[in-house]
Amino acid sequence: MQLAEFFSSEPDQLWSLAKQMGVNYAVGPLPRELNGMKPWDYHNLLLMKQRFDNNGIELAVIESAPSTNLIKLGLPGRDEEIAVMQTLITNMGALGIPVLCYNFMAQFGWFRTSTSIRTRGEALVSGYDHSLMKDAPLTEAGIVEEDRLWDNLRYYLEKIVPTAEKAKVKLALHPDDPPISPIRGVSRILTSANALQRAIDLVPSEYSGITLCQGTLATAGEHIPSVITRFAEQNKIFFVHFRDVKGNAERFEETFHDDGKTDMLEAMKLYYKYGYQGPARPDHVPTMAGEDNKNPGYELLGRLFGVGYIKGLMEAAASNN
Fold first, then answer.
1. What's the whole-number average pLDDT of the chain?
2. pLDDT of 33 higher than 80
3. Using an 8 Å Cβ cutoff, are 126 and 203 in contact?
4. What are φ and ψ of residue 48, in 5° steps?
5. 294 burial type by CB count under 10 A (0-12 exposed, 13-18 middle, 19+ buried)
6. CA-wise closest residue to 236 among 268, 201, 267
7. What integer is the mean pLDDT of 255-270?
8. Do the beta carbons of residue 144 and residue 182 sit within 8 Å?
9. Please, which pLDDT band fits residue 35 given cuts at 50, 70 and 90?
10. Which stretches does DSSP call E strand in the chain?
11. pLDDT mean over 105-133
12. Cα gap 237→9, rounded to integer Å
């Protein structure tokens, strides 16, 4: 397993701390627009990759994308958005960046109703309470039905999967977070392991698989060891968000890695049992003492805790294989 972290596109304190902790793989965003170069342009991506290389870190995943909302809603302009995604995938392949983490959440991405829930030792975590959204207004997209999203996802995959095959870039589909539908009138279709299976079966390819986000799927009520087994046996786990939660899709909160409902050691052992060699990163970590919570889920100290915890599990799992 490649222990990774999510980095900014330019060096900061985490770049140094990660190397000190033994993290050698990066999950990166798209770089910012530079001198007229779009974030998905070859040269802009090259410059970011070289920054990582020069700091001894391998860029393993891009986990952001240009706008794809027209694609998801099936609106005019979606083919132009698809063309941009095809350019991004092609340039990733040319640069040897092997995994693209993407999602199919229309109108808004991952969503929380609170970012200041107190957990162990007064650390702060984010959470979701669906009852607080029952009277929320519709978005400008109005009612978005599930069938419409499934049709649009098929159309999208029919266009980008051949590009990914040619570029040899793995498409890692992330489940919807929260895994509940609808929110503000917008359906969410990727809310279970079965839904992820249906999605990657729309256009079968060795380059179309999933981001196994343990926290989202645990929220959905899935048994994480069973999900790992299911997709690992198909060689469809391309990227892992190694995190945990308390609660269910109606109401949940993030946790420290050792304080959720999943047997994390059992999960890690299964990744090793099935020979998973791709990237994994901690995600949605608690905000700890002395931090200002300006970046909920992504403050520094919780990341250090997460990396250390994962490293320990990796060593324990490796010793049993």
1. 97
2. yes
3. no
4. -65, -45
5. exposed
6. 201
7. 97
8. yes
9. confident
10. 2-6, 25-28, 58-62, 99-102, 114-118, 124-129, 170-173, 208-213, 237-241, 245-247, 251-254, 279-281
11. 96
12. 25
